[in-house]
Amino acid sequence: MTDFYDDLADLTQVDWPLMNARYWFDTVQDPDRRRQAAFLVHERFPVKLIQLIGVMSPLLKQQVKKSAARCGYGDGQGRGGWRQTRRWYR
Length: 90
Known about the structure:
Layout: H1 16-20, E1 52-55, H2 58-70, E2 81-84
Parallel strand pairs: 1-2
């Protein structure tokens, strides 16, 4: 069953070691959703908090860079990193 939280204090509910693991597996106690696919943010999120955007291909990188630049991401002052890798999407 999926749980929803709307208080930063509830970030303790996240299994942080699992989120940092490269590989993970369902368990008997948690057979379906051992790791969440995403954190959803309501209404807005400060772009300056994004440390890295990962994409699969050069074409997608250029498209995302254009969109992200309109939001102020990648300001040329060391903020806003990019990584193109297929390894994340296997």
